[in-house]
Amino acid sequence: MVDEKLHVTQALLYLDGVSVSFDGYRAIRGLSIYIEPGEMRAIIGPNGAGKTTMMDIITGKTRPDEGEVLFDAGKYDLTKLDETAIAELGIGRKFQKPTVFESHTVADNILLALKGPRTAAASLFGWRNNVEREKIDEVLTTTGLLDHRDRPAGVISHGQKQWLEIGMLLAQDPAIMLVDEPVAGMTDAETEQTAALLKDINKSHSVIVVEHDMAFVRALDCKVTCLHEGSVLSEGSIDKVAGDERVIEVYLGR
Amino acid sequence: MLRNARLFAVLVLSLFMATLSLSVAARAADFAASLEKFAADDFTETAAAVDDIAISGSPNAQKVLEALGNARLFFDPQTKKVYIGETDNSYSDAATGAKVATPPAGLQTVRVNNRLRRNIDMAIGTLTLLSPDAGRRQQAADSIFKSRDAATLPALENALKAEKNAAIARTFTEARAAILLSQPDTPRADMLSAVSVLRGRADIGAIAALRSIPDKADADVKAAANDAVAAIESRLKLISYVQNVWYGLSLGSVLLLAAIGLAITFGVMGVINMAHGEMVMIGAYTTFVVQDLIRTRAPNLFDWSLPIALPLAFLVTGLIGVIIERGIIRFLYGRPLETLLATWGVSLILQQAVRTIFGPNNREVGAPSYMSGAFDFYGLAITWGRMWIIVFTLVVFLTLLAALKWTALGLHMRAVTQNRRMASSMGIRTPWVDALTFGLGSGLAGIAGVALSQIDNVSPNLGQSYIIDSFMVVVFGGVGNLWGTLVSAFALGIANKFLEPLAGAVLAKIFILVLLILFIQKRPRGLFALKGRAVEA
Amino acid sequence: MITKYIVSRLDGMGLMFLAVMAVVAVFVPLSNLLLPPTSAFHVPTYLMALIGKYLCYAILAVSLDLVWGYCGILSLGHGAFFALGGYAMGMYLMRQIGTRGVYANPILPDFMVFLNWKELPWFWYGFDMFPFALLMVFLAPGLLAFVFGWLAFRSRVTGVYLSIITQALTYALLLAFFRNDMGFGGNNGLTDFKDILGFNVQAQGTRATLFFLTALSLILAYLLSRWMVTTSFGKIIVAIRDAESRTRFLGFRVEHFKLLVFTVSAAMAGLAGALYVPQVGIINPSEFSPANSIEAVIWVAVGGRGTLVGAAVGAILVNFLKTVFTSGFLAPYWLFLLGAIFVIVTLAVPKGIIGTLNGYYERWRGEDGEARWHRKSADDTTAATSNETGAGAKIHG
User: Which residues of C touch A128 (CB under 8 A)?
Assistant: First the structure.
């Protein structure tokens, strides 16, 4: 009890007893997860375990049927806010299927993501119209996309779109990033680079990573949560989770 | 118990009247005697003669009375015989109707005054009570029921005895009850039985008759009458509600018919087909062409025109649908807004094509015998056409449901809409399923056109008036849900008909549209929306 | 300074369009007024009125392109906004008639006297004053768009659903304005105008001035739209068009952006209607017909959505065709042609005329984003090329 209270007061992101069902199918059942400020967390689990649905709930795309979803040491109840408000609080998200603005250039994608006032008036008259080139190029350099800055985002490769979305997250500079399968479709070298980048990002942001690639998860070297059928199956260090009999049973295989 | 007592009273009354009646032979003699009264050349005598003739039942009676009204009835002061002046200036004997070669000299016109003229009109009215035409007898009875003229009572009772048709006999009884009730000197028992007869009639006319009870009538008669009025009024109110519901169901069935094809093309396939209304229109024109051919080639088959037109309309519009799908829509999957524009273009072309072929004016589509006329159902006036359209709509709907559930096309259709790639890899030819599904939706619109040709003007603009309504019905019901479309169509139809008396037809329609727009804000996916992650995609 | 700012926001096509419009705005009225009818350059009054009508449609098309081409909102209600602006102007013109009407009632328009109305309905108050009427030209459609958009965008009605309910709205307005009780002249609408600001609406000078104002309004509408779409606001509404929910997850209040662009666009359509009415001399409920709104959409599609200039060009072109086809022996074929335009444009020329031309032009110049990128990587690898297009061509070749 005391332990839980402590989580409420300290956790950056606090999910407790969250359930949601679609047409009778319970995608999430009594899920509880706490993320500390500055923490990096990897979420693993088989398909249908509820990983993406969990992200939908945190970012306001899906409303939970029951349970608490609190942000910033319990200051905000995320179940009462919509996607925009949650994004404004500082929760950024990279989608499983990379989603970028395809008819905009790579640079414009970053420009739109840059942290700053997001009202319609500000977009007409505000600073976003006079952003220095360097600010955008800085992000593009970090993500290795500088050469592609003026290409339409629709024509770059799948891996590059993944990087672009991470770049957009960087530009957004949120308190916590939810990164859904960032290395799908990447080469081993790119996967390593991504792991390094995320660890670098983690120095100034909290990060939740959903990933199937166990080598990548191992490279992240962080606390791991394994979901199964909408609730937590196992949680702890990668070695503890990977050694858990039930995790091996349902996910890793023998 | 009480009702039985009243019934018994009526029976006794009828028997009593019967014994008073005269034999046929006696009547003929009476007729001649009555005619003689005309010769008296006295208004009172003439009036008595008119009354007598009216109830005589003689086949000549009407002719005599009409001649009297037109100042063409003459009498011979010497022989006291009465003659009718024919329009061709010849004369006939009023008593026998036989032609008279040379009329006696010194014939005098039987004079009438205004009071008499009224009597004559009324007498002619009571004569039609005995007309061989059932419709005219019914009319006469209805008019007596309204006038409650006591003078017609003997004629009425005569007619009642002779009447074989149960429905008309009932109206006669009711008319008699209305007269008896309005007379201050009717016995109390008769009054009470009359009240119960009128209560059974239960319409506005019955209320008027019940209110005509003289002030000096007994208190319990008045109470019974008031009671009956209250009962009738609440019944009428109920009937008007039911009538509104019926009109609403009727409108709802029209909406459902128009929308059902769209529920397939838009609801199941997600294709915005703005030419849907034109499919309905072409279905209606198919009916016109079929009827036109039947009129010129085989007029006796006219009643079969609709059954013949139905499959033809389905095939014609279904084929056009398949052509549109293969020629245009298949290139636009995933681009609903472009589909909207392209099919709008198709709708313009189809409209103009029909206008070029059939001309811009309304075309006459006739109603087969079973579609015309009306019947009374516990006080509800129900037209056969509307009723068959409702039945037909439900049959089409259920057939469609069954087809989707049990036929191969239905199975493939559902497979393709749920998971196109999977269906395709399982060997379903998705392009053909798309084409046939679209053809099915269009064909249903064509069938709707056959039915709607019975209640709407068949013109090139026919489809335009249905397209917006149809989309609203499908969206309101929840896209992809046929039962939702059914509920939505009937709900909108009934809501519209209940609003109409309050606001007028146009305002009611505007009101419904605005309500729908607001509703869609509240529940963008309609009444019966599918929920879940799949919907988002 | 301002000129420089404006020019910096324009592309070649825009500059060309503005130059042509400026010439038309000045040349047509002056030639009509000053040159003798015998002159080869004289623009007769009927032709000026016709072009003026086209320009009003062009403003409507630009406003529609702003919401559809850039923000992906396919409004089938812009004809209604156009008509509302037209009615606001029509009401001012009606009240200017004064005692010159058939019934010579100083306050009530003829149709109200005819309907035996005794008092002016409240919503006709103020329309005797031009500034108020002008305000209503923008406010009536703007407010309707605002309320409608506020409801629709907040509850995330998008795509075809939005199109269908805008059409239902238009249809409801059509039915409403046909009613005599509404107080807008029933199915006869408003007509028999006499004066505008004291000038006879039939006078040549007034007509020329109205023409000039219409052309000027088109230029201003274009500049306003162009400014909106070249700011970061424009980038955001395009982002909303392409991936609405992604834009939300970036923290943008999508409904506010949509609402702003929809309202501005509706007010612009209202202005087009207000300029249209004094030039054609009548406004009636058939302007609300849903078919009109869809026709406006096809103007934009023909010219090229998301180009603004294309919208104006498409409106003028399609309406020119309509004029040619609806008079004389071609009349029965107009709807066939219009229908075919709808089908062909959506199937074969989805980018429209200007969009397709832009594509050719850029390919010819080698200047689209792809080519620039290839050129740039060529620059990086060869690291020494003075002729940029040459490098680009090398890569392509």
Answer: 232
Contact across the interface for C160 and B344, Cβ inside 8 Å: no
> Rounded to an integer, what distance in angstroms lies between the CA atom of residue B508 and that of residue C64?
31
Report the distance separating Cα C88 and Cα C287, nearest Å.
13
Distance CA C175, CA C167 (A): 12
Write the pLDDT tens digit of every residue in A13-48. 999 999 998 877 888 999 999 999 999 999 998 888
Chain C CB contacts of A102 below 8 Å: 242-243
Token duo for residue C381 = 């690898």
Residue type, B418: Q
User: Across residues C150-172, what is the average pLDDT?
Assistant: 91
Per-position b or e across B414-440, b if 16+ CB within 10 A of its CB? ebbbeeeeebeeeebeeeebbbbbbbb
Domains: count for chain C: 1
Give the CATH number of domain A91-221; options: 3.50.50.60, 3.40.50.300, 3.40.50.700, 3.90.1570.10. Answer: 3.40.50.300
Close Cβ partners of A114 (under 8 Å, ≥ 6 residues apart):
A128, A131, A135, A136, A171, A172
**pTM check: above 0.95:** no
Q: Encode pLDDT of B258-291 as tens digits.
A: 899 999 988 888 888 999 999 999 999 999 999 9
Report the alpha-carbon distance of residue C310 to residue C300 in Å, rounded: 7
Report yes or no on C271 lying in a domain.
Answer: yes
Q: What are phi and psi of A25, to 5 degrees?
A: -90, 120
Q: Percent of chain C at pLDDT above 70?
A: 91
Least CA distance to C261: which residue of chain A?
A: A120
- Interface test with chain A among C66, C245, C249, C252, by most A beta carbons within 10 Å: C249
- Overall residue count recorded for chain B in this entry: 537
> Quick check: is C326 in a domain?
no
Closest Cα in chain C to A129 = C232
* Helix, strand, coil percent values for chain C (each to nearest 5): 75, 0, 20
Residue B169 in tokens: 């006999």
CB B262 within 8 A of CB B276: yes
Report the residue from A118, A150, A172 with minimal CB separation from C369. A150
Contact partners, residue C277, CB within 8 Å, separation at least 6 = C86, C87, C89, C90, C93, C190, C193, C283
The amino acid sitting at C349 is V
Q: CA nearest B535 in A: which residue?
A: A22
Q: Which two tokens stand for residue A16?
A: 């407790």
CA C64, CA A39: separation in Å to the nearest integer? Answer: 48
Query: Which structural domains are found in chain B, ordered by start?
Result: 2-211 (no CATH), 240-536 (1.10.3470)
Interface list for A 147-206 with C (CB within 8 A): 147-148, 150-152, 155, 168, 172
The answer to whether the CB atoms of C249 and A87 lie below 8 A apart is: yes
Q: How far apart are CA C397 and CA C386, in angstroms?
A: 18
